């Protein structure tokens, strides 16, 4: 998810993380098949702001790197 462009709609394919991280992301609505809008990316490896099911969320770059996605447009994968 970190490689996709700001403003892009992203589809979650899988989450490559431990049980606790998967559970936390699932509680936030980030599960395979869900669509996410990447709203903002903070500079200098800061957190990402995303919109999931109408809710705005901020997640750390390390956690977001564990979310495998398919970008709708051009991305740097």
Which features would summarize this protein structure in a list?
77 residues, alpha+beta, SH3 type barrels, 5-stranded antiparallel sheet, globular
Provide structural commentary.
The protein has 2 helices and 5 strands, in the order βαβββαβ. The protein is globular and about 30 Å long. The model has no long low-confidence stretch (mean pLDDT 89). It has one domain (9-71): Ferrous iron transport protein A (FeoA) (SH3 type barrels, Roll), CATH 2.30.30. With 77 residues, it is of the alpha+beta class. A 5-stranded antiparallel β-sheet has the order 4-3-2-1-5.
In terms of DSSP E residues, the strand content is 35-45%
The secondary structure category is alpha+beta
Oligomer: single chain
Average pLDDT, rounded to a whole number, is: 89
Low-confidence runs (pLDDT<50, min 5 residues)? none
Query: How is the biggest beta sheet arranged?
Result: 5 strands, antiparallel
H/E series: EHEEEHE
What's the total count of β strands?
5
- The CATH superfamily turns out to be Ferrous iron transport protein A (FeoA)
Q: How is the largest sheet built, in terms of strand order?
A: 4-3-2-1-5
Radius of gyration: 11 Å
CATH topology: SH3 type barrels
The number of helical elements comes to 2
- Kindly report how far apart the N and C termini lie: 9 Å
Shape: globular
CATH class, anyone? Mainly Beta
Portion in helices: 10-25%
